[in-house]
Amino acid sequence: MRGMCAAMLTLQAIIVGLSVPVLISVEDIDKAVALPLGLGLALICVLTAGLLSRPWAYWVGHACQVATIALGFLSPPMFFVGAMFAVLWASAFLLGRRIEADKARWAAE
What we know:
mainly alpha
C-alpha cells in the first residue's frame, strides 16, 4: 500500500508544482499567492510520500487530495485534476489495504 500511495503523491507533487506557472500566467493569480500554495502543497505531497511508514501520514495524504481539489477555486481545471488524483489516491489506498489483508491471510494459512 505504501508504495502505491507514495507513487500517487509523488506524481501529484509534480503536477501541482507545474500548476504554479499556469496559476501565475494564465489565471493571473498573484505570485505571492500562487507560489506558496502550489509549491507548498507540492512539498507537503513529497514529504508525506516519504512519511507513509507512519499511520498518520495517510490522513495528511487525504488532506492533500482535498487541498488539490481546492486549487480549483484559483484555476477551474484543477477541480478535474484534483478529482482525478483523489480517485487515484483512493484506489491506491483501498487496493493496497486489500492486498495487505490478503498477504496477511495467506501468511496465516
